[in-house]
Amino acid sequence: MATSRAPTVRMRRLGAELRRLREERGLTGDGVAETLGWSPSKVSRVENARIGTRVSDVHRLLELYKVDVSHVGEVLALAEEAGRRGWWAQYSDIPADYAAFVALEDEADSALQCESQVMPGLLQTEDYARHVIQGWNAIATITPQAIARRVEVRMRRQELLTRPGPLNLSVVLDESVLLRRVGDRATMRGQLSRLLDTALLPNVDVRILPFDALHQPIVGESFILLEFSPAYDVTFPDVVHTESLTATQSQHESVTHSYRLAWESLSRQTLDDEESLERIAQIARERWHG
Questions:
Q1: Under a CB-based contact definition with an 8 Å cutoff, are residues 47 and 15 in contact?
Q2: What is the model's pTM?
Q3: Any idea where the HTH cro/C1-type domain is (predicted)?
């Protein structure tokens, strides 16, 4: 069933920290639940961010775990933040895996992306995005209303790049994406113009992986690696998100480290900033104008 009730990073941070504190005291989830008079599954659901948690419940857990007073305030502040719903919650019809990604992306500090098929969603124009999303009708029926709402979600995601404390986005973009027609020529002209404008933002770096570069293929899929700074003295692991016909996410350190190495290797094979902008402008002029 489609739903956008995906846990925020704040909820996940809180759950992970409560698990760490419990394990630090050598307590079991069942034991904690029995002491507090909770159902046996409640502790697990809280720690895995499957349900929201009242601040009063968090306070009871911290008392039971005998948490140092210097850290209690940090965890309670995180619990207050975790109770806020993300903006994407109002889009109840978007797929659960997409909602989960949006929730993660919304609280990331930086993103390393490699794209070989289409423009990254954060850099798409509304027209380009509409054509991309309509393309999913080849394998699943999406109503015009649903398409409009998904385009709206994609446009709202882009506010990450211009809000106070914006997301730092670094993209390795295969040159084929600039040449692959999505929509008509006007769509592509508008898209490449938007790409040039957005690439000038101080927090956005777009590097083109050219056809004529000598490079060794490393990954055959597009991916984005989201990185998070500590918040309220609680860390959160990096997350890699990949998409093909389905989307997958992983927080395993060995997996995210491998994707980081892959991104770094590919980025060393790209054109530099100035050359990348020149290549985008050249293709826009020679391929899509006229």
A1: yes
A2: 0.84
A3: 18-72
